[in-house]
Amino acid sequence: MLQEKIGIVSANINDEMKNAYLDYAMSVIVSRALPDVRDGMKPVHRRVLYAMYEQNNMHNKPFKKSARIVGDVLGKYHPHGDSAVYGALVRLAQDFSMRYPLIEGQGNFGSIDGDSAAAMRYTEIRLAKISESLMASIEEDTVDFGPNYDNSEVQPLVLPTVLPQLLINGQSGIAVGMATNIPPHNLGEIIDALIHLIEKGKTTVEQLMHFIKGPDFPTYGMICGLKGIQDAYRTGRGSIVVRGRAVVESTKGGREQIIVTELPYQVNKLTWIEKIAELVKDEEVQGISDIRDESNKEGIRVVIEIKKGENAEVILNHLYKRTRLQDSFGVNMVCIVRGVPRLLNIKETLEYFLEHRLEVITRRTTYRLRKAEERLHILEGLKIAVDNIDKVVATIRGAESRDDAKEKLISAYSLSDKQVTAILDMRLAQLTGLERDKIIAEYQETLAIIADLKDILEKPERVKSIVKEEFINLKKLHSDPRRTEIAVDAGEVDIASLIPPADVFVTFSSTGYIKRVNQDEFKTQNRAGKGKTGAALKENDVVRFTFHAHTHDYVLMFSNLGKVYSFKVYELPEASATARGKSINQILTMSSNEQITAMLPVKEFAENKHILMVTRQGTIKKTELSSFSNIRSGGLRAVTLEDGDTLVSVKITSGKDEIVIATANGQAVRFDEDDVRSMGRTAKGVRGITLDDEDKDYVVAAEVVKPEESLLVVTEKGYGKRSKLEEYRKTSRGAKGVKAIKISERNGKVISMMSVPSDGDVMFTTNTGRVLRISVSSLRVMGRVTQGVCLMRILEDEKIVSVSMPSEFDETPVTPIESNEEVE
């Protein structure tokens, strides 16, 4: 009885705790930690910005103390701690936290080193110019308002933003049992996607990704790989790998240093530097001699000095793996949708925002229509008064009071109370003829406005058109270039950093075995030597060609079907000089009738370079090198070949070189590269040389020649010679050319022609795998029409199949040749 009198109710403590915790959880989820999908704001952010708007703290007005805004937010809308409100305010002003800061700050607002902002009594703020689009038309009944915590004020439940705030600045928060982590994006890309959504209506995530390339972080950096982006956009969840930007530079003392100029988003620079120092101290990362932070107001610059003899690229890779120089951003696109938390993909997020914008425009138009109709009602009364001005004035003058005048005017002209009030409030100046004309003109103008507003409400396409126009204007005002680079293949950089730079030979056999061999395995020998035993080839297999390259170069592989494939040299199997290598079919996916006929090492895909391709039947084609910079795993079409024709030579040219094409029967044609126009990848090409007998003769080599070098011609039976370039008369493309060497039973057909410097070496490879390296200077310059001298002693049933130019690594002296007799 006593319990009932004093209002005590019995309850199960388990049920009470459960209900109380659920109420608390929903409060945290909906009213604190998660953003609304429409304006991308948490309640605290919305309240801070609205309080600044109420105080007219706009971008074109003087700054105000942060403490003044914080006090206003605490007193009116957000009854929590002042540090929580000030912390949220500070983040909105940090250019390293927000891709597009919403608050313009004056004073210390923290740093990327983790420094705290100055106390709120010291800092000053105002709304950034871009924030105007958050509040646009907020006073035109575009959004719902609700009571504050004590029902003494009202506050917007959502902002009528034109700005797609949720995606351009991102959002993060931890609620109860769920969290959100949305990355920032580029404003121009998001608006382009929204416009596409307006125009097309139905679209796919893949189509939207054509416009939205990926997150765009305020701290720049580089996103590695597309998979994380694709997962996040399709499902709402994904892990995006982000790297800081680092370059390796050489110092005057011959050492290297790593310069870091960008860090991944939300990485504390000071903590990151301390982590590197800890790894060096614990000897987990070796080779670093010093770390200097040279950052200033212009940007980040951290210098990592590398010890002499250490490989900076390998150390940089360790920093990627062991520190937050490479970081993962876990995307979790959870938002409040109609009061309920939901996981959204990129398409749904844009659709909900667009739906909000359409509703805002509809509500704004309805509000303006209502105001226009109210004004029209007043103007109709004023028009009646103007049309009967003398009688109206007389009635007012004859009235005993204002109320008496109102009653008489309502009775005489059937006016409403609002109309009569407007008439009685008219100034005497409005009775002039000019003012009467203005009232009539405004009346007509208001009629036109009402008709236009009604038309907008009746036609959804017009509402969409208005939304689109506002997006376009917003993009013109605030769009900027993308900051974060997106690297398509994340793994490529990782592997390359682990591979030490080295010079190698790449060898490819006729049956498709390929390998790379360290060049130090080959030593310079004398002319006419026996050479060193090369690859242990299978029976009936021969070395097709070899070339010198760097482990970090690219290799373009051209097939007999006119396709091209691309690899890094370090991706090719490494083997000893005597090993066979690995089958190309284990590396490439080719059709059964496809074979690799040419390979080309490429250091970089420069814009002003070309690839020159020459076929067995004498066709030549030139294509820009940059056209081959992005080759998919299945290859691309490089040239369209005639039936029975194959590629025999592929070279890189500058666009202004001289070209020499040589045939098996010893003919050679020399002409300017300008004679060959640049073509697309799928073109067939033009005539490079005319063959005397297409059934018996064929092209064996094409060379980009240099005036200061000589031409070395080599036959399959080990003979050859070098001659001056002047010996070869320059003609036009497509000519038969001149005799380059006499061929006979003794020396055999021409196997190669190449431009060689006098201080270089040349390497010969036979079909049995033997390799011989000799100095070019041991060959004296001879006349063009000779059979040459013996370069390599050929065994029975053996012939030279490849000639290449290695780099000189050792300083072993070359024994002078006493006899250099020509073969008659």
From TrEMBL:
Domain of life, source organism: Bacteria
User: According to the UniProt record, what class of enzyme is this?
Assistant: isomerase
**What's one Pfam family here?**
DNA_topoisoIV
A single GO molecular function term of this UniProt record: DNA binding
Major subcellular location class: cytoplasm
According to UniProt, the reaction catalysed is:
ATP-dependent breakage, passage and rejoining of double-stranded DNA
Instruction: Tell me a GO cellular component.
Output: chromosome
Q: What residues form the catalytic site here?
A: 122
Instruction: Give the EC number.
Output: 5.6.2.2
Q: Which UniProt keywords apply?
A: ATP-binding, Cytoplasm, DNA-binding, Isomerase, Nucleotide-binding, Topoisomerase
One of this protein's GO BP terms?
A: DNA-templated DNA replication
According to the entry, every stretch annotated as the Topo IIA-type catalytic domain falls at 34-498
Which residue numbers does the motif GyrA-box cover?
525-531
Q: Where does the record say this protein resides?
A: Cytoplasm
UniProt subunit comment: Heterotetramer composed of ParC and ParE. Heterotetramer, composed of two GyrA and two GyrB chains. In the heterotetramer, GyrA contains the active site tyrosine that forms a transient covalent intermediate with DNA, while GyrB binds cofactors and catalyzes ATP hydrolysis.
What role does it play? Answer: A type II topoisomerase that negatively supercoils closed circular double-stranded (ds) DNA in an ATP-dependent manner to modulate DNA topology and maintain chromosomes in an underwound state. Negative supercoiling favors strand separation, and DNA replication, transcription, recombination and repair, all of which involve strand separation. Also able to catalyze the interconversion of other topological isomers of dsDNA rings, including catenanes and knotted rings. Type II topoisomerases break and join 2 DNA strands simultaneously in an ATP-dependent manner.
The extra comment attached to this record reads:
Few gyrases are as efficient as E.coli at forming negative supercoils. Not all organisms have 2 type II topoisomerases; in organisms with a single type II topoisomerase this enzyme also has to decatenate newly replicated chromosomes.
Task: State the similarity comment.
Answer: Belongs to the type II topoisomerase GyrA/ParC subunit family.
The name on file for this protein is: DNA gyrase subunit A
